[in-house]
Design brief:
Polyamine Oxidase, Chain A, domain 2; alpha+beta; 2 domains; FAD/NAD(P)-binding domain
């Protein structure tokens, strides 16, 4: 996986394989869910725990089911609410500090050859850059947009933008800064 600084790109082999789901990122979830009964469009109320199981009910108190194990895979604040029956876990989730990340997709009429498909970015407000157009089986909307690059912000710029009052202003600011740093990476 390449890393990019303002001055150069270099290949780094860190032993971590990266995967891209095809044809879309939700393909992994769809595959894992093929033999599972899933309730969509359901707001789960705080879990109710007993000695031997967890009971899940929806916001109208209709039972969803009883389970030996409950996996909570939501942001920390939501997890704290769901886990009120387990105060230690709720406190742990409630004390977690979450950080955000801005992401912007740029579409270019012409192809841009950066010399890599994805890279971690150092010495820049950006932390990640990826060529979405190079992902396999991405035909459809992305292909119609042209050459698409996705960039993610680093922690410092995210904190700065988050402190701004207007999200429109924040997004525009990040977009302009991202475009500026993309220009430096290309040259």
């Amino acid at each position: 996986m390449p890393t990019v600084s303002v001055s150069a790109a270099k290949e780094e082999k860190q032993g971590t394989e990266r995967f891209v789901a095809v044809p879309r990122m939700n393909a992994i979830c769809k595959h894992l869910a093929t033999e599972i009964d899933i309730c969509l469009d359901t707001q789960v109320a705080p879990l109710k725990g007993t000695v031997d199981h967890w009971s899940l009910v929806d916001e109208d108190d209709a039972e969803i089911g009883r389970f030996d194990v409950a996996v909570i895979a939501v942001p920390a604040g939501q997890a704290a609410t769901l886990l009120c029956a387990a105060p230690q876990l709720a406190d742990q989730a409630g004390s977690a500090e979450m950080t955000g990340c801005w992401a912007v997709m740029f579409a270019f009429a012409d192809s841009i050859d950066l010399g890599f498909d994805a890279a971690f970015v150092h010495q820049s407000p950006l932390s990640w850059i990826a060529c979405n157009s190079s992902k396999p089986e991405r035909n459809g909307v992305i292909a119609r947009l042209g050459h698409c690059m996705q960039v993610h912000s680093g922690l410092k710029i995210t904190s700065t933008i988050h402190s701004m009052r207007s999200s429109d202003c924040s997004l525009a600011s990040f977009g302009k800064q991202s475009e500026h740093h993309l220009q430096h990476i290309r040259t």
